[in-house]
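Replying to the earlier thread about multi-chain prediction with a worked example.

Input:
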Amino acid sequence: MGLGLIKRRRWFQAFSFLAINAYIPAWFKGEIYQGSIKGTCVPVLNCYSCPSAMGACPMGAIQNFFATARFNISIAQYQFGLYVIGFLGAVGSLVGRMPCGWLCPFGFLQELLYKIKTKKFRIPKPLTYMKYVVLVMFVVLLPLLIMDEYGFGQTWFCKWICPAGTLEAGLSLAAISPDIRGQLGFLFSWKFAILVLFIVWMIVSKRPFCRTTCPLGAIFALFNRVSLFQMVIFEDKCTLCNKCWEDCPVDIKVYEGANSPECVRCLKCVDSCKFGAVDYKFINWGQDTLAPNSKSET
Amino acid sequence: MKKRKLPLILFVLFLVIMIAGLSLGEYAYVLEKAISICLSCIGIG
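Result:
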């Protein structure tokens, strides 16, 4: 990937947003896209109830598997979400969190909002661990363990937290469908308040949702150190000037951990570093180009 | 050397898991959910 391509990342993000939400006629029909390709998972947080969404949100899909696991077993239907787990693991072990940096529409929105000129605040590091709690509690345990009388669980993350769903599905469908508009109540108000909170936070901090709350980002983050794609630091070239930290959309000091779980592999640091101290490579993929003084955590 | 093989092993392993899921008909299950309006996502129920 050349520097020219890295400089055009915004175009990639915009194209990805449009490609994932390409079914424009849905907006005029007041319904959601229902084509047969919609069972294909996308490696980003993009609500499948967004009218024009062409693919399935892996977080929504996996929660549905967990929420119906007991019922499915009771009717001898053995589907546990292996398709989604395998998909996420395959993407993660290939490129780690790269889809967050290059493809995710909600990540793109956060980067755009951060461009608004105002006082900025750093996010304390302990808050970045919250996304793992959200993943374990709201995506896995609660859907699996809390059942209604028929043996069905709920999609807890979608229902109580996901601001992407509120924006892409809630507000969009409310705008185009009077039926949906008529049913909005407390739950929508709660989710709308969460969305507003995050939007304000996005203006003053770098990608706060990705770093503190996104369960999909949490899954991909686990793969950053063991993915085929790896960031590399050439310690002999690094002057600790902190330009990479200043430009990083997730506020990490690249020289302290090139493959940090927080890194979204946007490669901005490769472009920012005027000393050529940051690079990337695919391991087990052709010839290893690492120099003797380079540092990679694999 | 041992550590460098891990990413490739993981990639192949998860690919196999994904194919296993597809062979169990999970694509149709995901499709069924994805083409229905998700009331939880909207904030209705």
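The first helix of chain A runs from residue 3 to 7.

Feel free to reuse this layout for your own posts.
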